[in-house]
Input
Amino acid sequence: MTSIKRPRLRVGVLGCGQIAQAAHFESCRKARNAELYAICDSAPDLLARMTQVHQPVRAFDTYDAMLADPELDAVIIAVADQFHAALAMQAMWAGKHVLIEKPMAVTVEEAEEIAACARATARVVQVGTMKRFDPGIAFAHDALRDDLGTIVALEAWYGDSTRRYAMTDATQPVIESSKRVRRPDGDPKADRPRYYLLGHGSHLVDLARYLAGPIAAVRARERHVAGIWVWFVEVEFTSGAIGHLNLGIPYRSDWHEGFNVFAEHGSVTGKIHNPWYLKTAEVECYTERDGIIRRPLGEDGHVYRRQLEGFADTILTGVPQRGANAEDGLAAVRALVAIRQSAARDAWVRLDSVTGAV
Ligand SMILES: NC(=O)c1ccc[n+]([C@@H]2O[C@H](COP(=O)([O-])OP(=O)(O)OC[C@H]3O[C@@H](n4cnc5c(N)ncnc54)[C@H](O)[C@@H]3O)[C@@H](O)[C@H]2O)c1
Output
């Protein structure tokens, strides 16, 4: 898979905005197998400040210039969702591997193009649905894959909290900004259901797929009451398992995220914390054969650094990819489009039938 002959992946971060400052710069600097080789932003004042703080080897004010650097191995695409597809494909055609922030794309067609580009260029694509690198969630996944037999049913929930900014402001660094940042035309938040499904629903559908496999069809109900957007989604997995997803933005409650999965030889249950606490999910796995419940001590819950290390491991040593690949990213976009269409039509929608935007 790789021709890179160095122990640490040389990473360039595209975008010096919120997620780069809160997660990616630090992750690149702390990773055991990667380094913050380059950063790039079209806002020169923000680029200068981030260069001073994080000391990359190179700083670029254009993406073309960063991609032209032959020493650069991979790019983290940390810009607005609407820009992901074109910039990710540009990187792959320039020979770079890409870690694309979630959601991978905003339409089925864009996501299909990314998946086709990944195949054509043989580059590693990983989507930034980083919860797969939570040691508790990974433990649940591995137990279901290796030990618990046929999956019968899954329920999973993701409720943002009205208090979430109190939580995240307490744990994130001060986020620097600039009047000159590049943003998509119009207001991406104007269509709230779309914005919430892309931003939050992308995590929930990826979790469901990671634990219980591909989704064949969904039937969703959507409500907007008292400022709370809710989707209750019935799921049919291609395996025949059935599921239920509960997405609520924002609930008048604490952060509300977790899952139960029931299988032939046991079950797993998990309570997931707000990611900015960097605290591993509390996961238990019950096995019927011995009547024992096991719970891993996930001492390292830095999911953002761990997703980068996993990405770098795949590129440098060829280990199988734990992160969501381009096909997973495409499937997640299909699921989000299907949820939206199902809620509008009040009918089951098959994922393989959908086209268009979330
Ligand atoms: N995984 C997570 O937990 C998580 C959390 C928050 C955001 N995100 C995702 O991260 C992505 C970025 O979000 P954000 O809030 O950091 O965005 P942002 O708008 O705050 O920052 C993006 C930066 O990229 C720069 N930029 C945009 N296009 C550019 C280009 N072509 N060349 C150079 N610079 C360019 C902008 O000037 C801006 O500074 C989104 O897709 C979002 O969904 C993920």
